[in-house]
Amino acid sequence: MHVEALTRKLEKKVSQLEAEREALLKSEENYRRLNDTLEERIKQAVDDLREKDRILIIQGRQAVMGELIGNIAHQWRQPLNMLALLAQELPMSYQAGTFTKELLEANVTKTMEIIQQMSRTIEDFRSYSQPDREKIDFKVLQVIAKTLSLLEESFKAHLIRTEIEQEGDPVINGYPNEYSQVLLNILSNARDALLARKVASPSIVIRVFSENGSTVVTVTDNAGGIPPEIIDKIFEPYFTTKGPEQGTGLGLFISKTIIEKNMNGVLSARNTGVGAEFRINMKQRRAVP
To answer: Which H/E stretch holds residue 3?
Structure first.
C-alpha cells in the first residue's frame, strides 16, 4: 500500500510537470509569435516613416522647383529683351543703309552668347531637378556657386548683396543636388526675411571653412534674427511664419532631414548680433588647396 501510494503520487507529479512543460512550450510559442509580430510592426512603422520622409522631401523639392521656375522666368526676361532688340536691329540697319557684314557677325555673336547663357540656366535647373541616385564626392564651393546662380537675378532685383568667404576648397561626400536644395531653402528664407523687414542695405554672407575635421558652411543675413519664441520650432514640419500662399512650412524640416538623416551631418540655427545664421556641419572628405 505504501509503494502504491508513492507510485500514484509520483505519477501525479509527473503529470503535473508534463502539464507545466506543455504550458511553458505554449507560452514560449505565444511569445515567439508576439515577437515576430512586433518585429514586423516595427519594420512596417520604420518603412512608413521613411516613405513619409521621402514624400515630404519630394513635396519640398516641388515647392522649391516652383520658385525656381519663377526665377528662371525672371532671369530670362532681360536676355529675351536683348534678343528682340538684336533681331529688330538687322532690318532697321538694312533700311537705313548701314547694314554690313561686320554688323551681322557682331549681331550673331552677341545673339549666340545670350542663347548660351539661357541654355546654362536651363541646364542648372535640369541638374537641380534630377534626384541624386548615390552619394558622391563633391566640392562645396561649386554647389554654392550653382545655387547662387539660380537666385542671382532675384537678389539683383532686390539689391541684396551676397558675399562668399572661403578657406580652401573643401570636398564632402553626399548628395550634391539635395545639398543644393538645402542651400536654396536657406538663401530663399534669408531673402524673404530681408524683404519682409525692409532692411536698408540687405546682405547675405556665406562662409566656408574647416573645423575639427568637418566642413562648415554658414549662411548669415542682416535681417534682425529669428524671434526667440519660435527659434526652437523652425525645424518642425509645417511650421511657418509666412502665409499659406508663400510657404508650406516644410522647407527647413526637409533641409534638416536631408543633412542629418541622409548625409549624417548637422543643421542648426542661431541669432547673431544683426541677423540669423544657419550652419551646416559635414564630415570633410578631403581638402583641395
So the answer is: helix 2-96
Cell numbers 552677341: residue? 110
CB 152 within 8 A of CB 75: yes
User: Euclidean distance between the first and final Cα of the chain, in Å?
Assistant: 100
d(CA 89, CA 103): 9
The mean per-residue pLDDT over the stretch 120-134 comes to 65
**Residue 93 CB-half CA count within 13 A:** 14
E-strand ranges in 128-264 read 136-139, 161-166, 169-174, 203-211, 214-221
pLDDT tier at 279, thresholds 50, 70, 90 = very high
Average pLDDT, the chain: 81
Q: What percent of the chain has pLDDT over 90?
A: 26
Scanning the structure block, which residue is given the C-alpha cell 583641395?
A: 288
- Global confidence as pTM: 0.62
Contacts by 191-197, CB closer than 8 A, 24 or more apart: 191/151, 191/154, 191/155, 191/158, 191/160, 192/242, 192/246, 193/221, 193/223, 193/224, 193/275, 193/276, 194/158, 194/160, 194/221, 194/222, 194/223, 195/158, 196/223, 197/223, 197/224
Per-residue pLDDT for 249 more than 70?
Answer: no
190 Cβ partners below 8 Å, 6+ apart? 204, 219, 221, 223, 275, 276
- Give the separation between CA 14 and CA 164, rounded to whole angstroms: 84
Q: Give residue 289's pLDDT.
A: 45
For residue 247, what pLDDT is reported? 57
Strand partners, 204: 162, 221
Please report the pLDDT score of residue 288 as a whole number.
45
Positions of E strands within the chain: 136-139, 161-166, 169-174, 203-211, 214-221, 266-271, 276-288
